[in-house]
Amino acid sequence: MNLWMNRIIRFLFILSLMPISVYSQYSVRGLVIDDNGSHVNGAQISLYQNGELAALTRSNVDGEYSIDKVSQGKYLLVASCVGLASEEDSVLVDRDMSHNFILETRDIMLDSIVVNGKNNYASSRGHVFILSKKAKESGNPFVALQEIPYIYSDPVNETVRSSDGQSIMILIDGIRVNSGISPIDPSRIKSVEIIDVVGAKYMRQGVKRILNIKLKETSIYTYAQLAAHADYPDDVYEWQKDVDLHQVLWSRSRLGEHQKGQGIAGADHFWFGHTPLRHRVDIGNLHYIDTGAVFGGELTLVQLQ
């Protein structure tokens, strides 16, 4: 009995020496104002950790927000509000802390009418926004979409998520496009629509919110992928171009040259087989996916459409 008591006492003593911060939880508080110094009521404050939504709250009439019971760690804190540009900051939570946001005013386009971004206007289905000049000139659609409320756009991983964790579907001119938004030049974006009133068709798929990117009428949204047995024997792809079919079927010279970081112009992606490899190889926009299944290796499949 004394032996067990000694062990328990020893364990409790060791436990007491461990850093208190391991078990601690903290609060993150702050103030949200616009570029005129006015308090922002109803701004959405999202807290992400490792790409996952950890907490969600809104600012009150005084622009104040508070998130309690936050475990120690590194987070991404995002503030967004209709009519104002979103802001985000990386924060290290290791104590009770305060973090303030200043959100800049921008314009919203609603039913072909441009109104001042300080006003909260909504369509019958959600909200419609136009990108700022800076966003359109960014050259990256994921960077451009960072100023849109209700979503979190990550240029590093090229992903777009609903800021409240809901399932989101991305449409281009109302159509679901397999290629995603990566090929889009932001200067071609006419407007961005956040649809919260989702039709039954998408609700059955578990979709709670839709991001619909509308392109200018003069632009043509194309996304080309080419699949060939072995190679496309040219550095520039053109539709119906006269090429050596023997090389299309059997050439390994391009892969053998290990043109790392290079590819073929004229299309977004090229998919090749023919040469058995231990694992899939990606060189620029060239993808070699024959992983030797016929010889007992793995079978690699890619969904193109």
Question: What's the topology here?
Answer:
Layout: H1 2-17, E1 25-34, E2 44-49, E3 52-58, E4 64-71, E5 73-81, E6 84-93, E7 97-98, E8 101-103, E9 108-110, E10 113-115, E11 126-129, H2 133-136, H3 141-144, E12 151-154, E13 159-162, E14 168-172, E15 189-195, H4 200-203, E16 209-215, E17 225-228, H5 245-250, H6 253-256, E18 269-272, E19 281-283, E20 286-288
Parallel strand pairs: 1-7, 1-8, 14-16, 17-18, 18-20
Antiparallel strand pairs: 1-4, 2-3, 2-5, 5-6, 9-10, 11-15, 12-13, 15-16, 19-20
Structural notes for this entry:
The chain contains six helices and 20 strands. The chain has 305 residues and is mainly β. The strands form six sheets. Strands 1, 4, 7 and 8 form a four-stranded mixed β-sheet that branches. It has a four-stranded antiparallel β-sheet with strand order 3-2-5-6, with no helix packed on it. The radius of gyration is 26 Å and the shape is extended.
The protein's oligomeric status is single chain
Along the chain, the helix and strand elements come as HEEEEEEEEEEEHHEEEEHEEHHEEE
Q: Total helix count?
A: 6
What fraction, in percent, of the residue positions are helical? 10-25%
- Low confidence ranges: 107-121
Distance between the termini: 70 Å
How many whole angstroms does the radius of gyration measure? 26 Å
Q: Provide the structure class.
A: mainly beta
Task: Note the overall shape.
Answer: extended
How many beta-strand runs? 20
Strand content: 25-35%
